[in-house]
Automatic annotation (TrEMBL):
Residues 11-26 have a biased composition (Basic and acidic residues). This is Nitrite reductase/ring-hydroxylating ferredoxin subunit. Residues 29-126 form the Rieske domain. PROSITE patterns: RIESKE. Belongs to the bacterial ring-hydroxylating dioxygenase ferredoxin component family. Residues 1-26 are annotated as: Disordered. Its cofactor is [2Fe-2S] cluster. GO terms for molecular function: 2 iron, 2 sulfur cluster binding; metal ion binding. It holds the Pfam family Rieske. Keywords: 2Fe-2S, Iron, Iron-sulfur, Metal-binding.
Length: 130
Protein backbone atom coordinates (compact mmCIF):
# COMPACT_ATOMS: atom_id res chain seq x y z
CA UNK A 1 0.00 0.00 0.00
CA UNK A 2 1.14 3.56 -0.52
CA UNK A 3 0.90 6.82 1.37
CA UNK A 4 -1.52 8.58 -0.98
CA UNK A 5 -5.05 9.03 0.34
CA UNK A 6 -8.20 10.85 -0.55
CA UNK A 7 -11.62 11.63 0.80
CA UNK A 8 -14.01 14.52 0.96
CA UNK A 9 -13.57 16.37 4.22
CA UNK A 10 -16.22 18.06 6.28
CA UNK A 11 -16.30 21.26 8.26
CA UNK A 12 -17.63 19.64 11.44
CA UNK A 13 -14.53 20.49 13.47
CA UNK A 14 -13.52 16.86 13.98
CA UNK A 15 -10.12 15.37 13.21
CA UNK A 16 -10.82 12.88 10.44
CA UNK A 17 -10.48 14.84 7.27
CA UNK A 18 -11.80 18.31 7.93
CA UNK A 19 -10.58 21.26 5.87
CA UNK A 20 -8.27 23.68 7.66
CA UNK A 21 -9.28 27.31 7.35
CA UNK A 22 -6.83 28.80 9.87
CA UNK A 23 -3.53 28.27 8.08
CA UNK A 24 -1.21 25.47 7.15
CA UNK A 25 -0.72 22.46 9.41
CA UNK A 26 2.30 22.75 11.69
CA UNK A 27 5.51 20.77 11.48
CA UNK A 28 3.96 17.95 13.52
CA UNK A 29 1.50 17.17 10.69
CA UNK A 30 2.78 14.76 8.00
CA UNK A 31 1.76 15.42 4.38
CA UNK A 32 0.57 12.16 2.81
CA UNK A 33 -0.01 13.60 -0.63
CA UNK A 34 -2.74 15.13 -2.74
CA UNK A 35 -6.34 14.76 -1.68
CA UNK A 36 -7.46 13.78 -5.17
CA UNK A 37 -5.25 10.69 -5.19
CA UNK A 38 -7.79 7.91 -4.60
CA UNK A 39 -7.68 4.87 -2.38
CA UNK A 40 -8.21 2.87 -5.57
CA UNK A 41 -10.01 -0.43 -5.14
CA UNK A 42 -9.58 -0.51 -1.36
CA UNK A 43 -10.89 1.80 1.37
CA UNK A 44 -7.85 0.86 3.49
CA UNK A 45 -4.21 1.84 3.12
CA UNK A 46 -1.07 2.00 5.18
CA UNK A 47 1.44 4.81 5.64
CA UNK A 48 4.51 5.00 7.86
CA UNK A 49 4.66 8.27 9.80
CA UNK A 50 7.40 9.01 12.34
CA UNK A 51 8.29 5.32 12.27
CA UNK A 52 4.70 4.28 13.10
CA UNK A 53 2.64 2.17 10.69
CA UNK A 54 -0.71 3.93 10.43
CA UNK A 55 -3.87 2.44 8.93
CA UNK A 56 -6.04 4.92 7.04
CA UNK A 57 -9.67 4.06 6.38
CA UNK A 58 -12.13 5.80 4.07
CA UNK A 59 -15.69 5.52 5.42
CA UNK A 60 -18.60 7.68 4.22
CA UNK A 61 -16.23 10.24 2.65
CA UNK A 62 -14.28 10.67 5.90
CA UNK A 63 -10.75 9.43 6.57
CA UNK A 64 -9.87 7.84 9.92
CA UNK A 65 -6.34 6.95 11.08
CA UNK A 66 -5.35 4.37 13.70
CA UNK A 67 -2.21 2.42 14.53
CA UNK A 68 -2.14 -0.35 11.93
CA UNK A 69 -0.86 -3.03 14.30
CA UNK A 70 -3.48 -5.15 16.10
CA UNK A 71 -3.00 -5.03 19.87
CA UNK A 72 -3.69 -8.77 20.17
CA UNK A 73 -2.17 -10.71 17.29
CA UNK A 74 0.29 -8.18 15.88
CA UNK A 75 -1.17 -8.30 12.36
CA UNK A 76 -1.69 -5.33 10.05
CA UNK A 77 -5.28 -4.11 10.29
CA UNK A 78 -5.14 -2.70 6.75
CA UNK A 79 -4.85 -6.33 5.61
CA UNK A 80 -8.19 -7.07 7.29
CA UNK A 81 -11.79 -6.45 6.29
CA UNK A 82 -13.48 -3.07 6.73
CA UNK A 83 -17.24 -3.17 7.39
CA UNK A 84 -18.69 0.27 8.05
CA UNK A 85 -16.66 1.79 10.87
CA UNK A 86 -15.23 -1.56 11.99
CA UNK A 87 -12.04 -3.22 10.80
CA UNK A 88 -11.43 -6.91 11.46
CA UNK A 89 -7.93 -8.17 12.17
CA UNK A 90 -6.95 -10.80 9.58
CA UNK A 91 -5.18 -13.00 12.13
CA UNK A 92 -7.69 -13.80 14.89
CA UNK A 93 -10.80 -11.86 13.86
CA UNK A 94 -10.69 -9.15 16.53
CA UNK A 95 -12.60 -6.01 15.56
CA UNK A 96 -11.78 -2.32 16.17
CA UNK A 97 -13.85 0.82 15.60
CA UNK A 98 -11.75 3.06 13.32
CA UNK A 99 -13.34 6.22 14.80
CA UNK A 100 -12.27 5.56 18.39
CA UNK A 101 -9.78 2.67 18.21
CA UNK A 102 -11.95 0.77 20.71
CA UNK A 103 -11.98 -3.03 20.61
CA UNK A 104 -15.44 -4.30 19.66
CA UNK A 105 -15.16 -8.06 20.28
CA UNK A 106 -12.86 -10.82 21.49
CA UNK A 107 -10.07 -11.63 21.36
CA UNK A 108 -8.97 -7.97 21.37
CA UNK A 109 -9.23 -6.12 24.68
CA UNK A 110 -6.86 -3.16 24.25
CA UNK A 111 -7.64 -0.24 21.93
CA UNK A 112 -5.41 0.98 19.13
CA UNK A 113 -4.33 4.62 19.07
CA UNK A 114 -6.19 7.04 16.83
CA UNK A 115 -4.55 9.87 14.92
CA UNK A 116 -6.08 13.11 13.62
CA UNK A 117 -6.40 13.59 9.86
CA UNK A 118 -6.79 16.99 8.16
CA UNK A 119 -7.04 18.33 4.61
CA UNK A 120 -5.28 21.53 3.56
CA UNK A 121 -4.95 23.00 0.05
CA UNK A 122 -5.55 19.66 -1.61
CA UNK A 123 -3.19 17.72 0.65
CA UNK A 124 -3.99 15.14 3.30
CA UNK A 125 -2.18 15.42 6.63
CA UNK A 126 -1.96 13.08 9.60
CA UNK A 127 -0.52 13.83 13.03
CA UNK A 128 1.28 10.95 14.75
CA UNK A 129 3.11 11.32 18.02
CA UNK A 130 5.92 8.83 18.69
Amino acid sequence: MNAMISGAGSDRGDDHGNDLHDGAPGADWHDLGPRDACFGDSPCLQATVNGVKVGLFLVDDEVYAIDDLCTHGHAMLTDGELDGFEVECPLHGGVFDVRSGKPMCSPVTRPVRTHPVRFYQGGVYVKVEG
